[in-house]
Amino acid sequence: MEILRPSLINISGRVYRRNTIKEDQYEEGEEDDSYMGPPASEQFEEEEEFCDSHSIEQTDKGFSCAIDVPSVLYKYIIGRKGETRRRLEADTKTDIHIPKQGVEGQIVITGSQKAAVSSAVTRVELLVQSFRKKQPFTHFLSFALNHPQVQDGFLRFKEEVLEQCSQDHGVDGSIFQNPAKLHLTVGTLALLNDLEVTQACKQLQHCQDFIKTITEGKPLPLEVTGIEYMNDDPAMVDVLYAKVQVKDGSDKLQTIVERLVDHFVSSGLMVREWDRVKLHGTVMNTLFRKDASAEARGGRQNMKEREAFDARNILKSFGSYHFGEFDLSAVQISQRYSTDCTGFYTSAGLLNFS
């Protein structure tokens, strides 16, 4: 039962148990009403004794603490018609001051007792962390695979697949990756303001020591060879990917990836999705599929289910396809939608191996 295995939230090294709540308590109302937030009966239990991660300052009227919270998350603390904030203030006997919506700043909590302010800070942090998980990712940590040799191999792969397998269900040119955007995703990040982007870039630089230890300060020779699919049925595939491995057969790349994920998860900037990261470079994805009627509607895509494709013949004919080899020399944080002059995703932060 979930009540015996409640979800855990890690905030600045403290681990909390959260009792199960009903999702309908969080249904979105009108834009200016925002969200209800958790019911007053919901309790957050500390797994360990509370330890301040924020500075609570003594003032002439009591105590005060300022918390950095992205403006996009204010609505979850305010709640529908301000109900969540009022409930938090009543429960903790504090005042919670929130900047205007869309204005980046700090949420300031004041109260006559330090313990009350501390409790309110914890409650706000828990709300922020809970709803942060619901935000779409804005950036991703990745290795670029768009080396010229790999791009050339990919373009040959696309041409040959379309020549031999275009009659197979769902196979067409629109579902192939843009060769300039070929990459291996390490993990996704929801960075909700400029401060968080800066923090993520600093965390990436902190990974330099262990990466240099693993790579001995040299580029990592990789080969992109073979294809595989994500789901269980090769006749109904949404994502087909190229396999990426170190040329010497070592696990150095996998080790770097796992260490990167561990570091960003522990920093609170990434949510762990899998026990082990699957090394892959997407080459075909049904999310890329063009909607023939989109142009008539001003370019807007239908919100219909993805149309899978039959990959059986592709796997049979191209299962061991060799896309190319190159020396990997950097890992970067990229913006999800933005691209630079080369056609690759715009980099927010870069860490070179050497």
Description:
With 354 residues, the chain is α+β, with helices and mostly antiparallel strands. It has helices spanning 74-78, 83-92, 114-132, 148-165, 194-205, 208-215, 252-266, 312-318, and strands at 7-11, 14-18, 44-46, 57-59, 62-69, 94-97, 105-111, 139-144, 183-189, 220-229, 239-246, 280-285, 322-328, 330-339, 345-352. Strand 1 (7-11) and strand 2 (14-18) form a beta hairpin. Helix 2 packs antiparallel against helix 3 (114-132) and helix 6 runs antiparallel to helix 7 (252-266). The protein starts with 6 loop residues before the first strand and ends with a strand. Mean pLDDT is 85; it is low at 20-51 and 293-303. Residues 61-129 form the K Homology domain.
Strand order of the largest sheet: 4-5-7-6
How much strand? 25-35%
User: Tally the helices: what do you get?
Assistant: 8
Question: End-to-end span in angstroms?
Answer: 49 Å
Radius of gyration: 24 Å
What would the principal axes of the Cα set say about the shape?
A: elongated
> H/E element string?
EEEEEHHEEHEHEHHEEHEHEEE
- Biggest sheet architecture: 4 strands, antiparallel
Summary keywords:
alpha+beta; 8 helices; 27% strand; 354 residues; 27% helix; four-stranded antiparallel sheet
Write the layout of secondary structure elements.
Elements: E1 7-11, E2 14-18, E3 44-46, E4 57-59, E5 62-69, H1 74-78, H2 83-92, E6 94-97, E7 105-111, H3 114-132, E8 139-144, H4 148-165, E9 183-189, H5 194-205, H6 208-215, E10 220-229, E11 239-246, H7 252-266, E12 280-285, H8 312-318, E13 322-328, E14 330-339, E15 345-352
Antiparallel strand pairs: 1-2, 2-3, 4-5, 5-7, 6-7, 8-9, 8-14, 10-11, 10-13, 11-12, 14-15
Helix pairs in contact: 2-3, 6-7
